[in-house]
Amino acid sequence: MATASATLEEVLAQAERIGDPALLAEVLKDSGIVSSWLGDYGAAEALLRRSLDYARQADDPHQIGESIQWWILILLWGPIDVETALEECRRLDDEATDAGRSRILVAEGVLRGLRGEFDEARKLTGRGRAIMDELGQTVNSAAISMPIALMEQLAGEPETAERMLREGRDQLIAAGERGYLSSLSGVLAGALCDQGRFDEAEPFADESREVGAEDDHTTQMYWRAAKARILAAYGLRAEAADLAAVVVELTREEKGFDTQILLLQMADLLEPDAARAALERAVEASEAKGNLVSLAQARERLAALP
Asked: Helices 217-233 & 257-267, crossing angle to 10 degrees?
């Protein structure tokens, strides 16, 4: 990804010299995607906003739709607060293609889930994935199962998360897709850990580690978080705490709503002072995002500390 980032910087400089708004929209969109995969949601937000502005200047409906699709994912995953993200989703709906509208529905659903509105969230995410399936977007449908599954984990439904992720994993393997697979396998391992099925979780944590790129921050967090929980279940508390500390450190670079969930999970494996620091960060980040479910859980856990 570092190589891709450097290449895109060179291409962007050339595109700016040419001054073609359609070309600028495409290059800025790709740069935003890579920035988001590297965990830099601030840069991704700025790049995708510029991409959408240039796509509108070019009056290019396809590029407008593409920029919106990726911008929606930043609204969902990134640190932008839930209310602002929901307003932006509603504002973008008129310009979106069917593919973009499917992502808007999923984003709205998961964002509503972060507020604890799980019934409405499931209706919206179900409609969004149904549109993806109708459009034949198998890989996108499998990939979007990750934030939905994380929402189900927040709702206390890891079995639902597991079923969805297993289906998504099968689809990605059939398509030969490995970029999303590494992250999805890590989330699946976490859903199995939630159920106390640590022996079953371990192969998926290992798969996440083996398939994932070293600079794929999301994957690097997920497999370590699951592995730390597995080690703790095997009685290897010191090793688990060491790995949990790495996860906590990685969450400083990755600012998605998933980090709020991981901080809660890792706090169980840390010494009291480190656990308190992790939970305090979870409170701060959850409050800023508007993730009311994680916020309540973090506050409850903090209050229970000695």
From this structure: 20
Interior angle at CA 304, CA 300 and CA 306, nearest 5: 150
Angstrom distance (rounded) from CA 289 to CA 285: 6
Identify the residue whose tokens are 């479910």: 293
The SS3 assignment for 253 reads: coil
Q: Are 285 and 263 in contact (CB under 8 A)?
A: yes
- Are 188 and 169 a contacting pair, CB within 8 Å? yes
CB-facing half-sphere around the CA of 243: CA atoms within 13 A: 21
- The secondary structure of residue 207, as a DSSP letter, is H
Give residue 38's pLDDT. 80
pTM of the model: 0.92
Residue 295 token pair = 């916020």
Asked whether 89 and 108 are in contact (CB, 8 A), the reply is yes
Burial 58-85 (b: 16+ CB within 10 A, else e): bebeebbbbbbbbbbbbbbbbbbbbeeb
Tens-digit pLDDT profile for residues 59-116: 988 899 889 999 999 999 988 999 999 999 999 988 888 999 999 999 999 999 999 9
**What tens digit of pLDDT does each residue of 254-273 get?**
778 999 999 999 999 999 99
CA distance linking residue 100 with residue 4, whole number of Å: 25
How far does Cα 218 stand from its chain's mean position? 7
| Rounded Cα distance, 52 and 37, in Å | 19
Residue 296 neighbours by CB distance under 10 Å: 13
H helices present in 58-157, as ranges:
61-77, 82-92, 98-114, 118-134, 138-154
Give the dihedral sign, CA 38/41/42/44. Answer: positive
Q: Mean pLDDT throughout 25-54? A: 89
CA distances from residue 150 to 70, 161, 164 in whole angstroms, order as listed: 19, 7, 11
Amino acid, single-letter form, for residue 185: S
Q: Encoding tokens for residue 96?
A: 């979106």
